[in-house]
Amino acid sequence: MKRFAAVVLAAFLIVLTAPLTTAAQPVSDTPRLRLTVTQMNPRVINGTSTTLNITGTVTNTGDRRISDLQARLELGDRMTSERQVRTAMSGGTATGSSMSRFLDLTPAALEPGQSAPLNITVRLDGSAGNLRITSPGIYPLLVNVNGTPAYGGQARLASLSVLLPVLGAPGKSTSSTPDQPAQVTMLWPIADTRPRIVAAPFGGQAVLGDDVLAAELRPGGRLDALVSSALAVRDDPELSRTLCYAVDPDLLDTVDAMSRGYQVRTSSGNVPGSGAEVAKTWLDSLRRLVANQCVIQMPYADADLPALAGVRGGDLMGYALNTAQRVQNLIGVRPQAGVLWAQGPLDDKSLDALAAAGIKTLIADPSELSGTVSGGVTLDGASLRAEPVDSLVTTGLTGTGGDSAAETPVDDPAIGTQNGLAALAYRGMNGDTGEPVLVAPPRRWDVPETELNQLLQSVREMIDKRLLTGVSLPQLLATPASGTSRMSYTAEDVAAATPATVTDSMASIENTMADLRSAMTVDATAQVDPEQLLLPLRYALVRNTSTAWRTTKGAAEISAADSRTELDALLRGVTVDSPTVPISMASGSSPLPVFLHNTLPVQVAVRITMNNSTGLRFGESPDQLLPAGLSRNIPIQVEALRAGRFNLTVSLSTPGGTELGTPARFELRSNEYGVITLVLTIAGGAALVLLSGRQIYRRIRARRAK
Question: Which of 83, 434, 543, 551 is the most buried (most CB within 10 A)?
Fold first, then answer.
């Protein structure tokens, strides 16, 4: 038993290396404290644990002096239901049933901006002024800091609440393991916090909106931590079977583009990016990590699928969903066929599109499904299976944001790791049914590598002690569906979706692209498929609907504007020259030289239109097929109907009417009439002479008659 207790302690003895920070709950608008916990040891209590230590700092962030600073630990009652665990994870503080004595901080008073160290060590034997733990379970633990602000009374000015798993009461034997350990499968998200590419010209370097991704790929960065921590257990068959890597194809595309050299947009113009080499290294590490492992895909750029389904009949959905070959080309592993982890509930139109794209299983949060589900279900009206994640563990890892009056930032990454670990321990200690636990961390998980390492090691130890048993995702999905359900897509989901201004802009761009595509053909020399030329813009449109934009007002609109700029760059690939000097017509009827340029790698059918042409007559000008990458002089017959100066505008378009390039201004000068004009003038003069002669003849004849 002692060895068992020691192993369990090792499994959960996690030292916090990332600060746990909570904003103070002020007693008024002015006094504030910030509590930062840097170490909690141990993170899980068992029969051999004797003490609990909390260290950190307390900082006066207000504008008043705060004195009489004291701190203590408060342990609530053991939680006996899932509802109690959820309440604690949402930021609510339970009444302390066991409290340590208040410890005076040194210094005991802080001026604005000053800090004091926090170091509390309490015994767990229930002696006076210490904490008492009598049985295994999950307990709410509160770090409470009191103080007296100037011009105020003593009050709690900061606190931090976190869940404390207890696998065995100190000094007593550890709890027995369940007969049927809970089956655990864990998604491991590999995704960016938001799309980065703002332009991706065909054959040119990608342009990123910033160079933040390079820092995330470097050692110590967010994405490096996700790959490095998983690589550390890559050769552990138990954990390798348990993990399934969920990848965003947009991130893979972006890192691949970075590895070949890229630009970063700044206020003063584009500059070379700094992460080409680190992108190559990270991508190689990811390939080693996922080789022969379970991989599933997210929608491209974690797109808002209902929004995409509503743009031009959903013709962009394929670019968000049919990315398996793209993923395999980049990391060498094909994602699990027909499995998708999408964000948020989906409407009927997007569910139909998923089925049409070959998606058979949708990983979903239980809150998105109607009724109570405890396993895979078949969605009514759709040929899809919905596999629910474990909402308790997911809530712990993600954090709910808590109540506005809560004193604890329950969505702090390190607190989320501790609460998620406690929720997983709760499932393990109450897993007699053997039900599956599908763990889904935050899609844009931001946790230090040390936390990830300890979390994985803790899962491994829980598997060793039969609190959990690891199963692969394919094994989990092979179990029969337990019933039926419906996807709940409410008015709130509609309100949170991509703004209509963005989808309207996308539809307009799509219409223009469709017409442009109809004017393009493969050039015999360049041999470029027009679809490949337009592909970067189609993916840019998918990025417009990324669910990552929802947290930043106006971000989706900015993304849509970037797509419009990309389209305009394509349209400017075909243009007409404006002459630098006026053109003098050699005669009243002369050919006008119009120089056209096509810088695109495809042939383009072009229509020439003359505007502001009063006083000029033009010959026929059929549509022109411009070869890829070439210029051509198109002579257009022009006849002046009068002598003088003419300002002419020449514009280009596709045969369908899409404007190309920028209209050119021509200044023409003519001192002669054209042939037709001269003939008409002579004919008019002759007619005038004849009419005049006839009139004279009539008058003479009339006089003779008298």
Answer: 543
